[in-house]
Amino acid sequence: MELRSRNSQPDALRGRTGQHTGSVLRFLLFDLDETLYPAQTGMFDEIGQLINRYMEERVGIPPQQVLHLRRLYYERYGTTLRGLQIHHQVDPEDYLTYVHQVDLTSYIHPNPALDQALAGLPQEKAIFTNATAEHARRVVEVVGVSHHFQRIFDIRALGYFCKPLPQAYQIVLKALPAVGPECLLIDDTLRNLRAGHEAGMHTLWIGARPGPQDGTDYCATDVVRVGEVVLDLMPGQVR
Ligand SMILES: [Mg+2]
44: CA distance to ligand 1 center in Å? Predict the structure, then answer.
């Protein structure tokens, strides 16, 4: 496990903090899936199978085109759903209900260490996810950290814009309300972090083999280390 900042020069690192911009770190914006619980639990495989089945059975897409279209829509629009809305006039609520019908407890478990880590951080914590609020609430309940999150910015709150579309970040910043440098974005998907960086946010990449990447200020293998990043950004803010 390692925690690294993108910039090894302390001055360069401090250049993005409130000490120089006048902004205080006020919000911790957590991605949900594979950020608040470990990646490769197998849950996404099951959700992926439900997406495939939805595209075949509900939308009527030939099976041999399903994977190609999923990749295309994900790359072009940010999520499969958005592509299905644009090209197949899919009802987003029907899709979202269908693909989230998984038994979470088969895949994810309580994380007391994360509960403790979050308890020590005074910033407001929010979920910023391309999934639904219902799915998010179920996940944080199982992980045992639901009481830390005052707000959930889900796919509906984002007006079905999704990360990494710039509109998604602007909607969240306006709703908080906040400016980019007042936020730390924590996510396992690099393209989401790069877009957050573009919006002026500090960024922490949760990755299996983290290393410096464009658009990421920090990286770690485990989200429980978020407190170290907060401490680095705002010394004295961790209780
Ligand atoms: Mg994720």
Answer: 10
